[in-house]
Amino acid sequence: MKYKKQIGYQILFWIALFLLGLARNYGEHENPGFKEFLYYDLCHWIFQIMGANFIYFVLIRKFFDTKKYLSFTLYLVLSLYCLGVLNRLFIVYLAEPFFATYPKESFTEIFSDIRYLLFHYIFPILSGAFIFISVMFILRYQDEKNNRLQLQKEKSELELMLLKSQLNPHFLFNTLNNIYSLSVSGSAATAQSIERLSDILDYILSKGQHKMVDINEELKIIDDYIELEKLRYDERLIMNKSENIGSQAHIPPLLYLSLVENAFKHGAEKTSGNVEINISVITDFDFAIFKVENNFSETSTDDRIGIGLNNIRKQLELYYSDKYLLKIEKNENWFSVKVTTPLYDN
Length: 346
Hints:
Structural class: alpha+beta
Strand content: 5-15%
Number of strands: 7
Distance between the termini: 30 Å
Oligomer: single chain
């Protein structure tokens, strides 16, 4: 497809250049000498195509692109002279006998008349090659730009998949531990826990690979997760959750769930007394703001900037570049994370 595209560009370019040359040099078709001019232009046109392709695909690619500028210059001058000579030989000995009766120049005259070759043969070849190479460089720049964008997109998607693969097993491991504890104690809540876990796993499998999800879907799964944790901590857990959804919003899947899971992992699991976790989410027409805070033991040495929050920061960078705000605070025995994201899909 790439070569077919290049051939198509060349056909359109050279036909347009040929017609433009006719219109510029010879005017109306009623000109008595138009037929002869047409033959000469056709002969020059053939060598313009040959010269331009040789200069671009051989000299530029082999010498100029590899920064061998001296070799490029020497071969360019030599090539233009040879092309000019071949063009003149082609016209005098092959083309002119079919439409003109001019006396033939000798080989010596053709090879030695540098001035005539320069103005009547080399310059036309060079001018056509210059226009052609300029167009090819524009197309080449566009292709390279598109390739860079595609590679960046693929890189971002791969990194997101790696981030999610780190988060999902981590969450699953913690939740299965909770269910295992319930089953060992013979709790009647085991079946309910399995049902909620099933909903969460279904969400991860069906929505986790999407680029964006509705914020309400994420909040529903967070409710399921909180209910699972309530079964584990009983009255020790003090849970406060507020929602103010002022407008429809979309977020990267598992973003908020990861923050809540992180609060339980580094707060509730490492606190022997009561565990308090506060969650709030607000959306307006511009931003979605999600905040989760939890208390923690004063003796804890965990600084919380571990794999979980680092993954979340990377995920935000991939989705939003620098158009997000991640605020992490640690005051006395309270730890909070606040995420502000714009309300648009990247």
